[in-house]
């Protein structure tokens, strides 16, 4: 009997091995303890794309034709380089960026907020290329927003991204609807603006087309515009760049948030703003259903095509005539994964995009944005009276006034989807107060930056 | 049975209403797909000019041939292997019943209610360390493992219901275990095996979470995963999204309508036996 | 529908007759065969067990391990004890996700099972008609298509310009129309409608097939006794399809607690986290916020929740039968 029992026990052991062998592999060492090495080879000579066939692995944003147009032009000029492009909506890229950069490194990627990506060593330090290509000689302000120091705060430290054009935001308006309600020219003060909003509503027009659905809280655009009217853009930038002690919950920003809440209460946004997505907003604005839209110059070319002569643009007006102005304005950032296969060629492409005449023309005409690059860089002719001309002029104004801010949604990797968006949606639904909005965002910010 | 006329009318009305509720969304999807790309149509509204080219456009944008090819490759990797492993294990646990079979079976049963989200995080790192991230293997291998609890339970139940007398008679005639398995049990198990294959086929085809987490390239994913990618990319263009969704759904619907009897009974048994 | 989650353990299923001793041959031979048989049996089970162990059990164990660390997936992790569990069970957003999942049970499970039960009872008399056969096929379509597709289809129907509002306007209910998935009050029920649409067909067909097994003479007898349809339903039909109801409830409850696909495409958890569920929150935590530890703790909690809900349900609904 005992022998049988022993044998039976052995049979059980055999079965147990199958399970436990595999499970046992989950060792007890803390995960992630094997140190990563990221020794990047020093640059030798001028960076190029070489002569051999190169396929650049790119990850771009859906709905923005600029990067693909640049890629096509680049392939035309350098036939050995082709692009393998994957596209997603920005919210999806935001979710995928850390994983993608780490485990399937793209040569070029449209970057969401980058400070955590940079401090985790997922992005290539572009300073060697900046030196080799002479980017240092450009106006320093162009690159500041893309520098990240060791603590993850931005504005200083190594360069981790480049812009394909420099975007500007403000308020687009429908000229015909504007005339209907007696708006002869863009408002000069916030009070005038409020007057036009009320007039539009009373005329049965939805005053503002704005997206705020899904994972993208588009009310961040008007909110930040109002912050610029009420307060100082430098303070907002400090917060976005994660400067120590920065706080979004200031009296000026609270006034801005209250003003936004006032607009919501007055019914200046569409009823379904909380489910409207970006292209729905565009469709309604282009079809003349709304007078205003808070958006950026990346749509200038599109609007010039879709409603030629019918759309205008103005910067968010200050509280009083002649007051300080500001605007969310930032490079459309593209980075290179730390372990990208063709980093050199990708960097060469980024430099080309800022300096080549054809590339700069494409950036203005298709991208609607001011190209990066030297202050005296080539600029194509732009038709007078077009939206593109208006946004380019506004860019110059903001630059003179030193009023450029990065986007408040770019303060941390998840602040937009996890904090601004739900809180702005709650604000619309009356489930959040302006005070609560800022407090809640600040609390999330601190827990994320504290890491 | 006594059936009044009124009962019949009520029954029919209810059935028709239920069928309408099921089908109308598809009709709406189809009509919307015919609107101009980039527009925002209103509910069900026949367009002035039907834009049939949306289907061509979606077919090309979604790269349908590659998607189909990828899904089929994944099916080929998962279904035969999973059915084979489950059949062997089911025979072992359900017919041979070795000492400790019950304990082993309970371990399998534990996996039956497991939500995939529960293990997706560590699975990602495990797949990465195996170096198969972004390949079809990243979907195939875990799916085989994840299907085991159900598939083994299913096949075990099948073999357990085959009358022992058959096997005993064969044993007396000196049949080997192999002979018993291959000549007696397998022929009797064909209905169970084919139902299992259908269920696994469907669940693989529709697998979403593993696809979007473990594979970045939609052309290496399952159909459902590819649909997710299509939505991520064209979600803002309603007519195109509708056209693409219909195209991606079509193969499943065709297969379902062809084999509907088998599908329905497999799904019913699947939930009954599980 | 997510695969194994749709399958449910039946306690004591196939409740095995103990293996019989071989009826002939000496003891030594039988011992020998018994042992050889056991080894062979385990050899047959081993491949399945290995896949299961490596791709299911191992990740569960690793999940448990990760859940005690603060880890971003890249740098070295630090031990934090039960902090992650405390976060999961105390942070309003995470607790909210769990509560939302429980609310979804109402729409994913109770509504479709109830609807299916009522409908099945009403169409029982014509269950064999051609219309019913056609309905069986049609009502099964939502079960066959990917949940993602159901999400995409319905997020369009439920949008401000969608079919639902169109119908409401047509019948003069303009005041009710809204962007159903974007409204705080209706977003979660609207997601629930999608789930109910998917589940009701399966439940109906299952329950109906159960009803056809009920002996028709029971109804005849009841009618002769003067029982009304309501009493008939409660004293004959309901007990007769008890097992089918148990299955429907279990399958749909799991699909509610572990929902992901539909919400991922329809609302991404919005507006304002109103439709955030554990599955989506785990996905966000792990791959977006890169809080691997919190995500793992949440995974463990989710698995425990599912078991904690399903096991008693099984007892309650099926227990006495076995």
TrEMBL record, chain A:
Gene3D superfamilies registered for this protein in UniProt = Periplasmic binding protein-like II
InterPro entries of this UniProt entry? Bact_solute-bd_prot1, SBP
Q: Where is the signal peptide?
A: 1-26
Superkingdom of source: Bacteria
Q: Which Pfam families match?
A: SBP_bac_1
The cross-references to SUPFAM superfamilies, in alphabetical order and at most eight, read: Periplasmic binding protein-like II
* Keywords in alphabetical order: Signal
This chain belongs to the protein called Raffinose/stachyose/melibiose transport system substrate-binding protein
From TrEMBL, chain B:
A single Gene Ontology CC annotation of this entry is: plasma membrane
Membrane-crossing segments per the record: 12-34, 67-91, 103-125, 137-159, 180-205, 238-259
Residue ranges annotated for the ABC transmembrane type-1 domain, each copy included: 68-259
According to its UniProt entry, one GO biological process term is: transmembrane transport
What the entry lists under PROSITE patterns is as follows: ABC_TM1
Cited SUPFAM superfamilies: MetI-like
The topology of this chain with respect to the membrane is: Multi-pass membrane protein
Specify where it is mainly localized: membrane
Keyword match Transmembrane? yes
Subcellular location(s) of the protein = Cell membrane
Query: What keywords sit in the KW lines?
Result: Cell membrane, Membrane, Transmembrane, Transmembrane helix, Transport
Q: Does the keyword Nucleotidyltransferase apply?
A: no
Per its UniProt record, what Pfam families does this chain match?
A: BPD_transp_1 (PF00528)
Per its UniProt record, what InterPro entries does this chain match?
A: MetI-like, MetI-like_sf
Q: Which family does it belong to?
A: Belongs to the binding-protein-dependent transport system permease family.
| Protein name per the record | Raffinose/stachyose/melibiose transport system permease protein
Q: Which organism is it from?
A: Glycomyces harbinensis
Automatic annotation (TrEMBL), chain C:
UniProt KW Cell membrane keyword: yes
* Cellular compartments annotated: Cell membrane
Q: Identify its membrane topology class.
A: Multi-pass membrane protein
Annotated region Disordered: the residues are 1-31
| Top-level lineage group | Bacteria
Q: Which GO terms describe its cellular component?
A: plasma membrane
Transmembrane parts of this sequence = 39-61, 104-123, 135-156, 187-208, 245-266, 292-313
Keyword Repressor, does the record have it? no
User: Which UniProt keywords are listed?
Assistant: Cell membrane, Membrane, Transmembrane, Transmembrane helix, Transport
GO term, biological process aspect, one: transmembrane transport
Name where it mostly resides.
Answer: membrane
Name the InterPro entries for this protein: ABC_transporter_permease, MetI-like, MetI-like_sf
Q: Which residues form the ABC transmembrane type-1 domain?
A: 98-313
Q: Which PANTHER family match?
A: ABC TRANSPORTER PERMEASE PROTEIN, INNER MEMBRANE ABC TRANSPORTER PERMEASE PROTEIN YCJO
- The name this protein carries in UniProt is Raffinose/stachyose/melibiose transport system permease protein
Source organism per UniProt: Glycomyces harbinensis
